[in-house]
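Thread title: Can someone regenerate the structure for this chain?

I was given the following input by a collaborator and told the matching structure tokens would be attached. They weren't. Posting the sequence so someone can regenerate them.
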Amino acid sequence: MTMLAALLAQAEGQGADLVTLRALVEEATEAGAARALDRIGLHDERAGADIVELRQLIQGWRDAKRSVLSAVLAWIVRAGVAALLVGIAAHLGMGDLIHR
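Best answer:
Regenerated them for you:
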């Protein structure tokens, strides 16, 4: 049983009206949520748009990071293939063609 449920049960056992207790808890949670949103600057009518904008910014960052990692990996693979081709050419005696 959660702490809140235990407190509600205790208050009800002492004669408090359950409907009143539930209304009190609801008001307290709404006030707490409003206070938390106010503290982080999301208390006005623009808060929803701000959250959407933040999510888009985060998604853009994730996309950019993925793109950079993909490009770096592609360049590493290309460099590896080029080194392999140079090694094969040197092994086959085509070193003179490479040094020209």
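The CA atoms of residues 10 and 50 lie 42 Å apart.
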